[in-house]
Design a protein that fits this description.
oxidoreductase, 4 strands, NADP, alpha+beta, flavoprotein, globular, 4-stranded antiparallel β-sheet, Nitroreductase, 6 helices, NADH Oxidase
Amino acid sequence: MEKPAVLKEIIESRRSIFPKDYTTEDIETEILEEIVNSAKFAPNHKRTKPWRLKVFKGDEKNNLGQHLADIYKNTTAPEVFLENKYLSFIEKVEKANVIISISVNFSGLLPEWEEIAATAMAVQNMYLTSTAHKVGCYWSSPGMIKHLDGFLGLEENQKCYGLFYLGKI
């Protein structure tokens, strides 16, 4: 198949695939590295490369899941707190093989929207590379991400814009 046809097929077959549909099989290290590395080829004005990606696997990933559940518990009024929802944060993270936090580093050299757009293009590259390798993925941006900055060790000029879940399908 010619390159344009391959590219068209990958673009048209790209879908968000959720952790409930992932297998327990690990994503090969080489494939994970290729997925993450594809982000750096996103266009970005003045070469600021504003995306900040942190890969979570194993215990570190499970700690992230517990932290998300705790954020939900600590920011939800007791009268509307749902135990099932609390547990669902932990379960969703456990079903993913890898989670990548997606943050933006605002350089001050460009309008913020340009650096957010460049980061979104970096994530699109990861989506397309995942699709090419038959790895399920999706970008989640729950309201509680605004509480992740400290956990992620972000600096004052950085902001988390979501979590990228990955798993074999």
